[in-house]
Design goal:
By secondary structure, the chain is an alpha/beta fold. It has two domains: about 110 residues, no CATH class; about 120 residues, Rossmann fold (3-Layer(aba) Sandwich), CATH 3.40.50. It has 13 helices and nine strands. The strands form three sheets. A four-stranded parallel sheet has the order 2-1-3-4, with helices on both faces. β7, α12 and β8 form a beta-alpha-beta unit. The longest helix has 14 residues. It is globular, with a radius of gyration of 18 Å.
C-alpha cells in the first residue's frame, strides 16, 4: 500500500514534527509514504474568504498533484473536510468525489483502512484530553477513532464536558471576531479537567487553545495527535485486527 502525505499549511509551518511523526506511524504499519513536493494549500482559507476563483485554482492544482495517489492522508481533519465536502463544488465534480474517496484524516485511516487496533503502550499513566475539532467531527464523522487509538496506547482519556464544543478558531472567524473567538476558547478551557496534555487532530484548534491557555497562565502542553500517537508506539509493537472485524 502506498500513501501520499498531504502535510497542510498549518501542520507544515507550526507542527512540522507531526508531519514526520505521521510518516513514522504509517511506515510502522507497513505503508510506503510519498511526499509530493508540488503540494500547496488545500484552498480552504481562500474559499472561506470568498475568493472562489483563487480557491478553484488551488483545488485544480491539488487534484492534479494527488491524481495518481492510492490514498491521501492528512494530519488534519479540517483540510480533509475541505477536500471531501467542498471540492465537488469547486472543481470537476466526479474527479473531486473520486479524490475524496481516497482521502483520509490520519486516525481515520489508521483505524478504518489499516484496521489498527493498538499501537503500543507508550502512553501508560498519561491523562490526555481530546478536543474534537468541528471539521473532523461534523464533516468527516471522526469521533471514536482518535479516542480508540489513545486508549489503546494506554492513555486515560477523561470525560470533558466541552470536548465537542468549538474552540473559536474557525480560521478567518478568529481574526474577524477576535473577542468572540477568545471568549469561546475561554469557555471551553474553563471546563478542562486536570490532564497531562491536550491533543487534537487539527493544528488550528491547538494554536487557538494553547494561545489562550498560555495567556491564562496555564502550562498544560498542547500536542498534535500524530506526535502523541507516535509516542504511544513506544517500545510496543502495533497490531492490526483481522479484516472484517468492527474497527
Amino acid at each position: 500500500m502506498r500513501v501520499a502525505l498531504f502535510a497542510t499549511c498549518l501542520v507544515d509551518n507550526f507542527f512540522a514534527e507531526a508531519c514526520a511523526d505521521s510518516v513514522r506511524l504509517l511506515r510502522h504499519f507497513g505503508v510506503d509514504v510519498d511526499f509530493p513536493e508540488a503540494q500547496s494549500c488545500c484552498g480552504q482559507p481562500a474559499f472561506n474568504a470568498g475568493h472562489v476563483k483563487d480557491a478553484q485554482s488551488m483545488v485544480r492544482h491539488t487534484m492534479n498533484v494527488f491524481a495518481d495517489a492510492e490514498y491521501i492522508v492528512l494530519p488534519s481533519g479540517s483540510c480533509t473536510g475541505m477536500i471531501r465536502s467542498f471540492y465537488p463544488r469547486l472543481g470537476d465534480r466526479e474527479q473531486a468525489r473520486e479524490l475524496g474517496s481516497r482521502t483520509f484524516e490520519l486516525s481515520e485511516f489508521l483505524v478504518n483502512v489499516l484496521k489498527v487496533d493498538s499501537i503500543g503502550r507508550g502512553l501508560e499513566g498519561m491523562r490526555v484530553a481530546y478536543h474534537h475539532g468541528c471539521h473532523a467531527l461534523r464533516e468527516l464523522g471522526v469521533e471514536t477513532e482518535p479516542l480508540r487509538l489513545l486508549r489503546g496506547a494506554g492513555a486515560d482519556v477523561p470525560e470533558w464536558e466541552a470536548d465537542k464544543e468549538c474552540c473559536g478558531f474557525g480560521g478567518l472567524f478568529s481574526t474577524k471576531l477576535p473577542e468572540v473567538s477568545g471568549a469561546m476558547a475561554d469557555s471551553k478551557l474553563d471546563t478542562l479537567p486536570d490532564v497531562d496534555c491536550v491533543t487534537s487532530t487539527d493544528g488550528g484548534c491547538l494554536l487557538q487553545l494553547s494561545g489562550r491557555a498560555e495567556q491564562r497562565g496555564s502550562d498544560t502542553p498542547f500536542r498534535h495527535l500524530a506526535s502523541l500517537l507516535w509516542e504511544g508506539v513506544g517500545s510496543g509493537v502495533g497490531k492490526r485486527v483481522e479484516r472484517g472485524e468492527d474497527a
